[in-house]
Design brief:
Order of helices and strands: EHEHEHEHEHEHEE
CATH architecture: 3-Layer(aba) Sandwich
Radius of gyration: 20 Å
Largest sheet: 8 strands, mixed
CATH topology: Rossmann fold
Strand content: 5-15%
Number of domains: 1
CATH superfamily: NAD(P)-binding Rossmann-like Domain
Structural class: alpha/beta
CATH class: Alpha Beta
Shape: globular
Strand order of the largest sheet: 3-2-1-4-5-6-7-8
Helix content: 25-40%
Length: about 250
């Protein structure tokens, strides 16, 4: 009589979900709010940055019930003390940061020209778009280096591309061109670290800044969210719009 065959149990390995923490600046309204919403729909814990915490709390409440938790945090990217305080809080609370979307912006000086622009406005644009992104990224990079993973997305504009020419928006245009240069330089430095850095042009979207007539906010935000969740191997040091590379 033959012995019954031994049944070997089949063990299916558990799949541990990837836990991601994202910070979106300037996220209490407009493009930033929609980026936060879409990231939370992907299950990420989203820190919704806002200069006015009350406005941030109001925005976060609108996203209650999303797959990922949304938490309002006070952040003015032009203030080093607020940047440092938030960086310490993220480290203590989460011990990591996986995604940084440098979206805080404004200063769209449509009618200003290079010969008569208010230099105070130009300084404000640079302090938000360039130096704000720079100081925040520098403060949070150690948390990304700790885990060898990061997605940094600098929200830029095609009007900051070297081939773009116009007599208007000089402060906005110059600050975005500088942000593009910073993006490429940082991406080169971090190549091979697991941290990728890209710029994204959301296009002309219908927001308070862009005005009416632009395309839906959700469409502009989708390209940013795509760059914030790039799978490995991920491109770095690129300028994207709607997931396609565009010239610097």
């Amino acid at each position: 009589m033959s012995r019954p065959a031994r049944r070997i149990p089949v063990v299916t390995p558990a799949i541990t979900p990837i836990y991601r923490v994202a910070l979106v600046t300037g996220a209490n309204r407009g493009l930033g709010f929609e980026v936060a919403r879409q990231l939370s729909e992907r299950g990420m814990t989203v820190l919704l940055g806002a200069r006015d915490l009350d406005k941030g709390l109001h925005a976060a409440r609108k996203l209650a019930g999303a797959p990922g938790e949304v938490i309002a945090v006070q952040l003015d990217v032009t203030r080093q003390d607020e940047v440092d305080t938030l960086a310490r809080w993220i480290e203590i609370t989460y011990g990591r940061l996986d995604v940084l979307v440098n979206n805080a912006g404004g200063h769209y000086d449509h009618d200003a020209s290079a010969s008569n622009a208010d230099l105070a406005s130009a300084q404000a644009a640079l302090d938000t778009h360039l130096f704000g992104s720079w100081r925040l990224t520098s403060a949070l990079l150690p948390l990304m280096r700790r885990h060898g993973y990061g997605r940094i997305v600098n929200v830029s504009s095609s009007c900051g591309a070297s081939g773009s020419s116009s007599a208007g928006c000089v402060a906005y245009r110059t600050s975005k061109a500088a942000l593009n240069a910073y993006t490429r330089t940082l991406a080169t430095e971090l190549e091979g670290s697991g941290i990728v850095v890209n710029a994204v042009c959301p296009g002309w979207v219908a927001t308070e800044l862009g005005g009416s007539g632009g395309r839906p906010v959700a469409r502009g935000a989708a390209g940013i969210v795509w760059a914030a969740d790039l799978a490995v191997p991920a491109p770095t040091g690129r300028f994207f719009r709607d997931g396609a590379t565009i010239p610097w």
